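Moderator note: this is an archived Q&A kept for reference. The question asked for a predicted structure of one protein chain; the sequence and the answer are reproduced below.
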Amino acid sequence: MTSKLLPPFKRINNSVSSGLIKQQAEDFEVNEVLVYEPVGEGEHAFVYVRKIGETTLVVAKKIAELAEVKIRQVSYAGLKDKHALTRQWFSVHLPGKPSPDWSLLNSESLWVEQSTRHDRKLRQGQIKTNNFKVIIKSLAYTSSSLDDFIQRVLLVGVPNYFTEQRFGIEANNLKNALLLLQATTSDAVKPKRKKYSQQRGLYISAARSLLFNQVLSARVQHDSWNKAIDGDLFIKSGRHGMFSVDAIDQDIIDRLQTLQISPTGPLYGIKSMNVQGQAACIENNAMSDYSQYQLLLTQQKIKADRRALRLVVDDLRVTELSSDSVQFSFNLPSGCYATAVLREFIHYPGQML
């Protein structure tokens, strides 16, 4: 299924099988690991919860209600899927106040597994890794096809696409991004600019993600999503700093082949970190049909950034459960999608990309 607003993006493997994921929430498990351990004291209460059938935002509201604080005093490192079994941390700013009885949150869909304190709030992106366990059912496969897939992914990684979760049901986040653009460019008197609501943030993120995916898809078609081309900006695996080179030498080629670095693509916005040469040509051409999203991001004064074109998959393992079902387990960094890995092996119902 492909939305008119969301074109299909190129795979590196065109011979994918069919299979079913998320037949029940327990088939898709995500466990969050932070970049640090809470110190055990401080004015921020930290709660580690297991949830099923609940969004991160709904859980945050429940925590705020129990702690009798405003929702802005509750923080989390990242959004987790509603239709999955997920574990994640939340922090609550409670200066000079004791923690409530967190067990009062417990229900069939939500369970507090751990609570502690820390001297700082939890911030977006402070995730060391997300551990995934995904069961695929009704799968036609052979042991050799599984082995080939594992070896290929461990050797070269997969394209680091934003997948359907980022765009919403039937790409509604993109539709709302266009509506947001219409509202900001109309002749009507505009209200004073306010801090973005969570929903507006989702629409803007979807617009940036579409532009990034267009560039990545073009690089996949060009067979350079994991290779260096003239004008590229590179990023070190597991790091945020980027760098360019005057010439692509053997050292750069070796570091790319050993997954130490990857080329990057644009997270569009103002004050962009421009690529040059062939890389710039591919990026500009790939985004040329989506000027309305570029205009939105410019108007909203979203600061540009860049993202690795390649997703390096850590500790990928596959367990054969039956003649037509397997379990994938792997670790991904913050902001990356398990379905970006799965789409290179299977096509599943509801897949929009």
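Archived answer notes: The two ends are 8 Å apart (CA to CA).
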